[in-house]
Amino acid sequence: MTEPRIIVHGGAWTIPADRRKAHIDGCRAAVDAVWGELQRGMPALEAVRLAVNVLEADPTYDAGRGAVLNADGQIELDAAIMDGATLNFGAVAAVRSFLHPVDIARKVMDTEFCFLVGEGAERFARESGIAAIDPAELVVEREVRLFNELRARAGFSTHDAFRPQAVTADGTACNCPVGPEPAMPKGTVGAVALDAAGNIAAATSTGGTPMKRPGRVGDSPLCGAGTYADNETGGASATGFGEGIIRVLMTRSACDFLRDGGASPDEAARKAIDLLHRRVSGHAGLIMLDRQGRYGVHCNTEHIAHAYALPGGGIHADVDVRR
Q1: 316: how many CB neighbours lie within 10 A of its CB?
Q2: Catalytic annotation on 188?
Q3: Is 225 in contact with 238 (CB distance < 8 Å)?
Q4: No. of H helices and E strands in the chain?
Q5: How confident is the model at residue 168 (pLDDT cuts 50, 70, 90)?
Q6: What pTM was estimated for this model as a whole?
Q7: pLDDT at 181
Q8: Which of 82, 170, 234, 309 stands the most exposed, by the fewest C-beta atoms within 10 Å?
Q9: Catalytic residue among 14, 158, 188, 239
Q10: How confident is the model at residue 312, as a pLDDT?
Q11: DSSP 263-295
């Protein structure tokens, strides 16, 4: 029997001081919701799905309720889930009428396919018994304000949303040339778990980047980019500049560092993000678990909201990677 573990993230960006508590509390709640069940034998695949459900329902994050709006003022959600025991993978992209896209991704795993998008994914969800909702129920006023501000702003690039911002002495984001204004929530969510049987699973869910082109798909639902799990190495979930993460297959690269170099999860996460920045000037955060149950957390943004279950009991939750 293996001692279970779970780690979650709620996005990597410059989190203003007045939003940090909500990010920390939400990540802690996601771990707390499944930690006891994992200890009682819940499979890792179910644990990451349920943990991500908690984060998708929390309007703090850019996933499910609270997701950013695309250039047409609409929400389009992406999600993926992966089983490290079998390498089975399920993903959906550009869905608009469902609070929990990771649930649809999990249903996709039970088919002969791996990835469904748009109307096809939504049709499949309804046929699978997942209830649709009015897309307006996913929209929060914070994101409407952001959409209106960015629409009026010339020269905005979606990569701007992930470059570190300058901060004032009290820790709040300031409107300085090194970063975007206003501060923009970019809280893609994810989870990685190890269960008592020694199986690893990972899941990631996102609304993407602010003002993205309609139909844009980022790293989160792509196997090896934003989500990866393999019992032979470990599991990882990413958050950040998706186009860069895709180009270096960051989560697969991180897991390969566990295998090839014998790195610890912290070292592997650091190496993967260094690779991202060196090759494509990307900014991101990464959470990891290896098959021994060791955690890894790293980012090259100002913060990454995260939480994990402590081996001796309790939950660590923070927006700072220093431990």
Answers
A1: 16
A2: yes
A3: yes
A4: 8, 12
A5: very low
A6: 0.92
A7: 47
A8: 170
A9: 188
A10: 83
A11: --HHHHHHHHHHHHHHHH---EEEEEEETT--E
